[in-house]
Structure formats: structure tokens, C-alpha cells
């Protein structure tokens, strides 16, 4: 029996089981959806109540030039939004559908939209990736020009999930390249975020150099849990992502981590630990600028 006077440890009194689906999207959309369906079911079976898919889980690497705004096929049998809602309902989980490319009427470009579905399959929040990856990484893929296909989002988004203790836990939204911009994470913390999600397709080259460092930095800076859920492996002959999905606690310790293969990341959120770290290290009360 843990000493009730001892300081809470990071895993003490968990109030929410979370899971991240690390996958290698590619082949056809159907291939990717089948991978995701099996992983969501597995995550739910081990008690995760919040399941997060990686960036562009359905169409990354499908050989379709640029993002395929599958949403356009609104009359299609399995539009991604309807598919995600059905997965949340069928598995009784909160599902963050990584991102789905959603075509915008005005610009003709898409937005990388991260949608949140509750266990009844209702859309409760959506976030459009703000920072677009126009970078020359120096890998086999060469130049990434996300802004050729996507337009940026504009809004900072948080939403509440009712945790096992009956109290709300506030979840902050971000995507992939956003991870490099601390201002967004500061804004999410100002909105009250306790857990910040980072569905991603971080490249192998930049992931190896920066992914873990950036996840831990954002977690410590903001005193939040940060859940980074990445694509992994080779998506086609030139595109490779880093994997290494992980849950980082507000002290900066990695509580759960995957390697480079498709797998399910499972972790726990402790409200007591969150409060303890924020009390010991009240950086958010010491702002001067
Ligand atoms: O375009 C798609 O289909 C899915 N989106 C992506 O793969 C995006 C844009 S190319 N990738 C990143 O943002 C990587 C960021 C990154 O790796 C870093 O910041 O180092």
C-alpha cells in the first residue's frame, strides 16, 4: 500500500488511460484504415479511453499526388469523417483522428484537420494545423512544401474530456511541425491545457535529431503531459518517418515510448502528479514578459 503521505509518483492514481497508434500509412486508403481499425480496437481492449491516430493516417504515402481530400467524396461510402465517428462509437473511445486533409472551397487547398470524436461518435472539437512544413530536410524526399497543398489553420483549440475522477481534463491540440513553435504550447497552457496532443508524421532525419527533445521541452515548459503520436517506417520509396511515439510527463520524463515499428503506445495521466509538479515548479506564476 503506497504511503499516503508520500508525494505522488507519476503513475499514482491515474485518471485517464491514453493510447497512440503508431502506424505506417501507405498503400491504399483502405490499407491504412484497416491498420488503424485494428489498432483502435486493440487500444480500447487494453483500457485506453482516449485514442490518438497520427497525422494523415489515411492518405500519407498512398501515391496520390499531394493530400487527397477524401472528404470531397462526401457521398463516398467511407468518408474519413464518417469512418472516424464510427470507429469512436464502435469502440466506445474518444478518438482523435490524427489529421484528415479537408479541401477548402476558397483556396482549393486543404487544411490538415485534427478532429475529436466522443464515444457516441459526435464531433466535439477540431483543430487545423497552424505551422506548415516548407523545409529542405536533406533526406531522400528532399524538399517538403506543405503549403503547396495545405493552407494554415488560425485557431488555438482545447477541449475537455471527463476523466475517471469525474473531473474535466483539458486537452490541447497541435500537429507535427507545430511542435517547433513554443508560442502555440504557451497559448494552449493559457487556455488551461493539462495534456497536449501531437499527432505527427515527423521525418526520420529530423525526428532522430529533434522529436524527443522537442516533446520533452514542451512538456517541461508548459508543465503538461505531451503525447506525441508519430507515423513510422517507409511510406513509399522516398518518404520515411521516425516513429518513437511517446507520452512525456510534466517533469519531462518519458512515461511510455515506442521504437520504429507500428505499435500501440499506452500510458496513464495522473492529475495528482500534474498538480505536484506545477506546485513544485510554478513557472506559470513567474512570467515577467
Ligand atoms: O503532407 C502530408 O501528407 C502529411 N503531412 C506531413 O507529412 C507533414 C508536412 S510534409 N510533415 C511534417 O510536418 C513533418 C515535420 C517534421 O518532420 C519536423 O518538424 O521536423
UniProtKB/TrEMBL annotation:
<dbReference type="GO" id="GO:0016811">
    <property type="term" value="F:hydrolase activity, acting on carbon-nitrogen (but not peptide) bonds, in linear amides"/>
</dbReference>
<dbReference type="InterPro" id="IPR001110">
    <property type="entry name" value="UPF0012_CS"/>
</dbReference>
<dbReference type="Pfam" id="PF00795">
    <property type="entry name" value="CN_hydrolase"/>
</dbReference>
<dbReference type="InterPro" id="IPR045254">
    <property type="entry name" value="Nit1/2_C-N_Hydrolase"/>
</dbReference>
<keyword id="KW-0378">Hydrolase</keyword>
<comment type="similarity">
    <text>Belongs to the carbon-nitrogen hydrolase superfamily. NIT1/NIT2 family.</text>
</comment>
<feature type="domain" description="CN hydrolase">
    <location>
        <begin position="14"/>
        <end position="271"/>
    </location>
</feature>
<protein>
    <submittedName>
        <fullName>Carbon-nitrogen hydrolase family protein</fullName>
    </submittedName>
</protein>
<dbReference type="InterPro" id="IPR003010">
    <property type="entry name" value="C-N_Hydrolase"/>
</dbReference>
<dbReference type="InterPro" id="IPR036526">
    <property type="entry name" value="C-N_Hydrolase_sf"/>
</dbReference>
